[in-house]
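#lab-general

N.A. 3:47 PM
ok so I finally got the sequence cleaned up, no stray characters, all 98 residues accounted for. can someone with queue access submit it? mine expired

B.Y. 3:52 PM
send it over

N.A. 3:53 PM
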Amino acid sequence: MRMLKFSGIYLSVFLLNCFVQGRQYDGDGNLKDWWEPATKEAFVGKAKCIIDQYGGFKDDMTGLNLNGINTQGENIADNGGIKEAYMAYGIMRLQMKI
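B.Y. 4:20 PM
back already:
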């Protein structure tokens, strides 16, 4: 059962990635800004936090910074997966009384 819970975490990463990338398309697959302005504003604000955080990572060998804008979809999905994993771990600890 525990493996089933943790495999759901991987699925959540993929679903989050689809959501982040797919939010720009309508139900027919057309590129369309269909979110309410307040929803889009809230999302963009939170995405900026991830963009800034990842944009601050620097490779010591090359001296290059990661491009947080180009990698934001993956970064948001990975952060969501980490959050889900941490929550699952907390639930598992409670269930196992660790």
